[in-house]
UniProtKB/TrEMBL annotation:
Superkingdom in the source lineage: Eukaryota
Domain (Bulb-type lectin): residue spans on this chain: 25-148
Family annotation (Pfam families): B_lectin (PF01453)
Disulfide bond recorded as keyword: yes
PROSITE patterns in the record: BULB_LECTIN
This protein's name: Bulb-type lectin domain-containing protein
Amino acid sequence: MVFALPHLLVFLLVLLPISSIAQNNGNVTVGNSLTATDNTTSWLSPSGDFAFGFRPLSNQKDLFLLSIWFDKIPDKTVVWYARVDNPVPRGSKVKLDADNGLVLTGPQGDELWTANTIVGTVAYGVMSNTGNFVLQDSSFNNLWESFKNPTDTLLPSQIVERSVVVVLYSRQSETNFSKGRFLLKLQDDGDLVLNTINLPTDNANDPYYNSGTVASVNDSGTSGTAGKQLVFNNSGYIYILRENNQRFPLSQVKLDSTADFYFRATLNFDGVFTQYSHPKTFNANGSWTSLWSMPDNICLATVSNSGSGTCGYNSICTLKSDRRPKCDCPRGYSLLDPNDQYGSCQPDFIQGCQEDKLGPGKDLYSFEVLINTDWPNADYAFLRPYTEDQCKQSCMEDCMCAVTIFRAVKFVFGLLP
Ligand SMILES: *[C@@H]1O[C@H](CO)[C@@H](O)[C@H](O)[C@H]1NC(C)=O
Ligand SMILES: *[C@@H]1O[C@H](CO)[C@@H](O)[C@H](O)[C@H]1NC(C)=O
Ligand SMILES: *[C@@H]1O[C@H](CO)[C@@H](O)[C@H](O)[C@H]1NC(C)=O
Ligand SMILES: *[C@@H]1O[C@H](CO)[C@@H](O)[C@H](O)[C@H]1NC(C)=O
Ligand SMILES: *[C@@H]1O[C@H](CO)[C@@H](O)[C@H](O)[C@H]1NC(C)=O
Ligand SMILES: *[C@@H]1O[C@H](CO)[C@@H](O)[C@H](O)[C@H]1NC(C)=O
């Protein structure tokens, strides 16, 4: 009895430091799990900059997103998420499993998602200070990395190989994490491209941005100019590394130090790929600042022979100062889905040949003139030479006509009130 007490003290003294290290080295052991609740805990990186776990969705009560986020900033900006069809309900669970890696199950135990490790037995999960969540075997080989399975955001020190089919998919909207209409990929030929896709398939339209980092035609590719990797280096610079190890920078913008700023690059839900910075200082009310983005003008760039571009059908795209698009319905039209500002617009009036027959044609409609606006790829007639008045007249007499474009001026039909 007399000797038992010192032993116990020694045991405690040794145990306490170990347990506090175990909580802080980003190390998660097999068998550990997290549950989606209001006061859910998360797995933190040693520095505390990043957290892995469930985040409640701001606009959807009782729904959660399994994700990685910047944990020290008020925004808690999400940088990676498990791509499931729908956000998961309260009570869902993620478990670190030796054979299946990360396993996400619903409240009834139904499997919703797994981190696909393919081979090996998982020994640890590590939430690293770079924001990469890694699954390792007992020899510290990486079996799965969130950095190798990006969603819509890249972080410094993240490198994506050409072999990866698609690098990034945008989300549906700022708050809806379902797969959106835009993708970024490093093609087999080395070209980095941004495409719109025709959901629900991945079928891509012509690129609305391409880097041009392909093999040189002059020397049948021997100079190694094709891109092999998309690199976001530790200093925050993003470039395409060519086979000949030359760099093709995506931007010439000079960056602040990663010691003072967080960086991320996100394929936004509107198709604009943007690099942002955010001050690390705790007491300042920092926010994400856009450093550069591509393409230069998403409104012009996404014009393609299929799909509506960044705004929905019948919607008019205007570029804001931050190079992000603003989508507005023309007068006389309103949003098909009132909650989706970026969606399609429908006329508030009935338009068609039937209506024209019922009334005295010309009085049914009027013209709304929009300057510097075009409605590309929808022409069914091209009259030349023709004056502006002849154009208007022709449209008035044509019950199929909704828009006439006169050089850079567009007329939209609206019903007279
Ligand atoms: C994780 O923890 C285990 C046991 O506590 C330890 O053996 C391993 O080295 C740790 N891994 C890392 C990456 O810190
Ligand atoms: C978590 O929140 C619930 C109510 O939302 C509360 O009853 C419970 O005590 C909380 N648990 C912890 C560990 O704070
Ligand atoms: C997100 O958008 C998709 C596609 O439009 C829709 O099916 C889904 O219900 C939306 N999810 C939420 C949580 O609103
Ligand atoms: C290819 O050759 C043309 C004409 O000889 C030259 O103008 C062009 O710069 C060359 N391109 C490259 C990538 O070397
Ligand atoms: C990152 O890339 C930039 C531009 O190529 C370079 O100046 C810088 O030294 C690189 N930083 C690191 C850590 O490699
Ligand atoms: C942060 O914002 C709050 C409210 O917007 C303000 O009261 C506070 O002074 C700001 N702090 C700093 C350091 O700017």
